TrEMBL record:
Protein name (Swiss-Prot/TrEMBL): DDE Tnp4 domain-containing protein
Region described as Disordered: spans on this chain: 192-216
Length: 216
């Protein structure tokens, strides 16, 4: 027998003895319905060809699904702000962001989600994977801490406007050499192609309760 919450509330005043309390708790347990989690499905990985998947995510469709499963992601990923996505879509958001420097604004056209949603999904998946596998990761924290000031001084001495930048990852432009016989398609003048890096600084982002500033 399954009772509604209103019916259970009407029974409470009559629960007196220990046996009645036991039976009442049993009725509560039987009345609980474990509702399935329905994710907001907007991206269908099955509709993506292996050729496009390799170009966009560097894995084919089967590889993306296998990677997400082996990394231990749940079938339905739920973020702190209650965004619900399937495991396949969450992995595609992660791989799409890491495969090539791309803005979340551009990714909205692929996944049909806002920049804030994509940013939180990406950050959530990164955090979940790191928490699960951090024991297998290595980063020489002691070396960086001991030499961070030296790194910052070296970067600043090279002309960086900031004095707290100690490293670079994919993002900021840096000029590189170009063969003298190579010209751009839009002009006859020689140009220098840039390599892109993004800097890491001493000042960590402290807005933990708001959307992080990665929603470019």
């Amino acid at each position: 027998m399954v009772l509604t919450l209103r019916e259970l509330a009407q029974i409470v005043p009559f629960v007196k003895s220990a046996r009645q309390k036991k039976n009442f708790l049993l009725l509560c347990a039987l009345s609980y319905v474990d509702r399935p989690l329905y994710p907001d499905v907007r991206y269908n990985l099955s509709a993506v060809s292996d050729a496009n998947a390799l170009l966009e995510y560097r894995f084919d469709v089967a590889g993306i699904r296998r990677l997400a499963y082996l990394l231990g992601l749940p079938a339905v990923v739920i973020t702190k702000r209650r965004y619900r996505v399937t495991r396949d879509e969450a992995m595609c958001v992660l791989l799409g962001r890491l495969a090539f420097p791309v803005r979340f604004h551009t990714m909205t056209k692929t996944f049909g989600r806002s920049r804030a949603a994509l940013c939180e999904i990406f950050a959530h998946v990164v955090g979940e994977i790191y928490d699960r596998w951090k024991s297998l990761m290595y980063f020489n924290d002691r070396l960086v801490r001991e030499n961070m000031d030296t790194y910052c001084q070296a970067v600043h001495a090279k002309g960086a406007p900031l004095s707290n930048v100690y490293g670079f990852i994919d993002g900021t432009k840096l000029q590189t050499c170009l063969d003298t016989n190579v010209y751009t398609a839009s002009t006859t003048k020689r140009s220098r192609p840039p390599m892109e890096f993004a800097s890491t600084s001493l000042d960590p982002w402290k807005g933990a309760d708001t959307t992080p500033p990665c929603c470019a």
